[in-house]
Structure formats: C-alpha cells, structure tokens
Amino acid sequence: MPISVLVVDDQELMRMGLKMVLGAHPDIEVVGEAANGEEAVRRAGELRPDVVLMDVRMPVVDGVTATGRIVAAGDGVRVLVMTTFDLDEHALGALRAGASGFLLKDTPPEDLVSAIRSVAAGDAVVSPKVTKRLLDRLVADDPAGLRDPAVLDVLTVREREVLEQIAAGQSNAEIAAALFLSEATVKTHVGRVLTKLGLRDRVQAVVLAYETGLVRPGG
Question: For 52, left (φ over 0), alpha (ψ -120 to 50), or beta?
Fold first, then answer.
C-alpha cells in the first residue's frame, strides 16, 4: 500500500507543487489537502493518512495547534512540519505538540520524499543537531519554558547518559563509541528512555532534555 499523505498549506501554489513532487513517486499517494489548521484536523480525522505534511503559519487555526489536535486524536497519524525558518519558534511548538519533526520549505524534493518515508515508518526526521540549534536559542530566550527535572528520575544513570548523548545529536554508533557500549545495547537503552519518559521519538527526547535542563544552551 502506498504511503497516504495529507498536504496542508495556506498557499495553493505550494500545495500544488508538493502534490506534483509527491505524485511522481508510486509509493506515495496524496489523499487530500487543506488550507488551514482547522480543515487539517477535520481532514486528518476523515482520511486518517499515514503522514500530514503541515505548514505552521496559517489562518483560522495554526499548524502547531492543529498538530496537537491531530496527535491527541490517537489515530496513529504522524505529522511532519514544514517551515520557512530553521529557528522558527513555531517549529519548536510543533515538536512539543507531538510532530515527528520539521523540514525547511526549501528542502530538496528527494529529501522531502525520504523524510515522508521515514516518518511513515515510525522514525523522526529532524536532525537533532538542527533541533539543538533551535533549542539553544529558544531556551535561552524563554527559561520559563523549562520543566521539572524530576521527570527524569525514572531513568538509570546509564539511561541519563544516553539521553545526554541523544540531545547532543549523536547517532547510536557515536553513542556506543562514547560510552564504550555495543550498538545493540545503545538501541536497547534508547528504547527504554523513550518508553519510560512516554516519548514518541528521539526528537521529543532532545526537546525534553533541554526543557528539564539536562543539557544547557551552548552545552
């Protein structure tokens, strides 16, 4: 079955362009489109696509609010946010709301297609290093957005070390080398970190590491 995608953007030309790009791939099917967040939530509920390609700055209901509603519906629909600026505070809001990542609107078509495939397979597509740069700026600007570090008390010492490495943008292979572990062991630790903290993916793990102060801007 092809990957079903709902395209959401308030600009008709952007939606048309995205549909043309995605329509060129037989394993991807654009099943619908929406011009604002309210329409996106309704269409996502009706169509239950595998992936929603979501703009963040839209009229009526913005993409961040729409992302939260779609994720909260619990239909297994995954959201991939597209934004114009890599330091857009709206992108962070979307990640906090449950998006599986974000891409810039000038992302090459082949990277966009690859990202949709990854998200549909259950992976996150935002580079943690890009997320780190975003969080460095936003956490510094809004320290009130930090969360109680006690939420990390469920982790073992080793799991906290793994979370720190994830927040630094390290791959499983890099974490294994840094902590003198096998990649299989690192994969197990990563899975436990996500499960214990109730997180969907590594991107949300990076966000939480910053929000709890486990890692600091510039650290």
Answer: beta
